[in-house]
Amino acid sequence: MLDPLDSELLNEIQTQIPLVERPFAQIAAKLSSTESQVLERLRRMKSPPPPDRPIIRQTSAIFDSKSLGYQTTLVAARVPEEHLDAAAAVINQHPGVSHNYRRNHVFNLWYTLAVPPHSKLGLDKTLAILHQASGADSTRMMPTLRLFKIGVKFDIGAEGDLTGRTETPAVGQGSVVPPSPVSEADRNVIRVLQQDLPLVEEPFKPWAARAEMPVAQLLQRAQEFLDRKLMRRFAAVLKHREAGISANAMGVWEVPAEQQESFGNLAASFTAVSHCYLRTTYADWPYSVFTMVHAPTRAQCEGVLASISAESGVAHYRALYSSTEYKKVRVKYFTPEIDQWEAGHG
C-alpha cells in the first residue's frame, strides 16, 4: 500500500534524480519532506521485508544504446510451445539480451538484443547463432526505422483519463540519434554511472572514488553525457506490476506507408503510450508501427488502443500481451561479458 508521499516520491524519481552531491535532500525539499524520510521510504520500496515485493528496480544512468555505438534490434521468434522455456533460457545467456517475454501470438518469444561497436560477430551473426541455438522455427529482426517516442514513466496514484493526450513534444521524439564518439575516459565513467545508485545521503561519493575523480567532476561528466544525448536521463526504473500497473499491451499497427509519419506522431501524443516506433515488416508480419501501452488493466489498455484507432482511422491492429517475463535487466555497456560470450560462440 502506497500513501500519497510514496506516490509523489515514485513519480519524482522516475523523471530525474538531481545530479548534485545530496540528491535526496533536494528531492525532499521539493516534496516538503526530509532527507531521512525520503531515504527511509526509498529503501523500503527498494528492499521491503517479506512478503512485500520491491517496487523500485534500479536507479542509474539510462543511456542511449545507439548513441554509444551499439547495434540494437527487437527480435520476434516463433518457437514450438513445448520448447519455449528452454529457448528463452538459451537466449537469455547473451548479455546483450535485456528484455525477453512470451507474448500471445504465433511469434511467441520477443526479445531485445544489443551488441557493442567492437563486436566481432555483429548483430546479424549473433542473431543467427541465437536462432539456431534456441531451436526457433522462425526469427525476425525488427530494428527501429523511426523513433517517435521513448520514455517510460508510470503515473503512480493517479486515476486520470488514460486516453489523454499531450501537446508537448514526445520524450525522445525524432529520428534515431546517430552514434557519438566515446573515448576510453567516457567508457570508464559510463561503467560507474550505470550501476545501481546507493540509497545514502551522498550516493555519488563512492562512485567518484571508484572513478578516481572528485564528486563535482563526476557529476559534471554525467551532465555532459545528458547534453551530448549519450544519456537519456538519470532516474529510477520501477517494477510496474508491483506499482499497480499490471497490464502492458504491445499494440502493433498495419499502417500504409504514406500515413506512418502522421500516425506515429499521433500515437506518441497519447500519455499512456511509453514507446512508439516504426519497424521493419515482412510477408508474415505486416505491422509497421509499435506502441507500448501500460495500464492497471487489460481493458484500459484496449481502451487506449481503441482511441488511437478512432483518432487515426487505422483499423488494422493487434494487442500483444506478455504472459511470462523471462528477463528484464539493463544492458551493461563496455563490460567484458559480451566479448566472453562471443569468444565461446565464435
CATH topology of the domain at 71-168 and 241-328: Alpha-Beta Plaits
Structural class assignment: alpha+beta
Query: Which CATH class of the domain at 71-168 and 241-328?
Result: Alpha Beta
Percent helix among the residues?
25-40%
In N-to-C order, the SSE pattern is HHHEEHEEHEEHHHEEHEEHEH
Number of helices: 11
Q: Give a short account of the largest sheet.
A: 9 strands, antiparallel
Question: Widest sheet: strand order?
Answer: 5-2-4-3-11-8-10-9-6
CATH architecture of the domain at 71-168 and 241-328: 2-Layer Sandwich
β-sheet strand percentage: 15-25%
Strand tally is 11
Please give the radius of gyration in angstroms. 20 Å
- On the 0 to 100 scale, the average pLDDT is 92
Give a structural overview.
With 346 residues, the chain is of the alpha+beta class. Among the domains are: 1-54; 71-168 and 241-328, Alpha-Beta Plaits. Helices cover 34% and strands 24% of the residues. It contains eleven helices and eleven strands. The strands form two sheets. A nine-stranded antiparallel sheet has the order 5-2-4-3-11-8-10-9-6. Strands 1-7 form a two-stranded antiparallel sheet. The termini are far apart. The model has no long low-confidence stretch (mean pLDDT 92).
